[in-house]
Amino acid sequence: MSTAEEIFTQTDGTDFTEFKEGMRDGIPIGAGYFAVSFALGIAMRNAGMSWFEGFMLSFTNLASAGEYAAIQVIASSGSLLEMALMTFIADARYILMSCSLAQKLSPETSQKKRIILGFGITDEIFAISSSRKGSLNPFYSYGAMAVSILPWALGSAFGVVLGNILPVRIVSALSVALYGMFLAIIIPPSRKDRTVLVIVIAGFITSWLCGILPVISSLGSGTRIIILTVLISAAAAIIKPVPVRIKEETDA
Q: Which of 23, 16, 252, 38 lies closest to 157, judged by CA?
């Protein structure tokens, strides 16, 4: 019996109910993913990728920032090592999300179920999964994954196809949507936290400087992004570390 058959033939009524609830909560996530990945598909098309390559890239990599980093490496004919480093840095937060969700799983949850859950963790699926009261039934997350992964991959494929059909001006206009997505990610936390705002501004300035300075500008764009990401995040962690709040428990 295959891994998938072994997992899904052991479901009981509770698992099926959790799966349906996950599908219900995952439908709006899937709709949003289609729109975002469509913009990624335009970027894939500009990098010379086919619709099938775009579909498979999104189907196996459920991360907009990581995929965009990979697309930039492909467009600049970068090395596999450069791509591995960029995607690792861009998606490192999922390691923390996985550790967090692991604490909500029942100790009886099998390793196979944990691996499947780990594959499908995204920012949004992590948010709805971590907000579940009590222990997390992985079938809830599976349901959300079932209705969100395919729209994410299809959006990229449609973006590549329509990018080859639509006029150049419209394709250029749609390409701006991807940058709008990243602005939507950085603006809200920047408004709430001045430290984040300073980091974002520092990122813009240093990125511009690295593009014009004699020695650094000769490096590949992917290498520059890796260096800047590590240096700026490390500097921010040293200068303005996040305070650790320890909840003190007292005996009643």
A: 38
DSSP bridge pairs for 136: 105
According to DSSP, residue 108 is labeled T
pTM to 2 decimals?
0.67
* Structure tokens given for 123: 């920012």
Give one DSSP letter per residue of 91-103, joined into a string.
TTHHHHHHHHHHT
Tens digit of pLDDT at every position of the chain (252 positions):
444 444 444 445 688 899 999 999 889 888 888 888 888 898 898 889 999 999 999 999 888 888 888 888 888 888 888 888 888 887 887 887 888 888 888 888 899 999 999 998 888 888 888 888 888 899 999 999 999 999 999 999 999 998 878 776 666 666 565 566 566 667 777 788 788 788 888 888 888 888 788 877 777 665 676 677 778 777 877 877 766 544 444 444
Of the chain, the end-to-end C-alpha distance in Å amounts to 52
Which amino acid would we find at residue 108? Answer: E
Q: Please identify which residue in the block is written with the tokens 């962690």.
A: 237
Q: For residues 61 and 81, what is the distance between their CA atoms, to the nearest angstrom?
A: 17
What does the longest C-alpha to C-alpha distance in the chain come to? 70
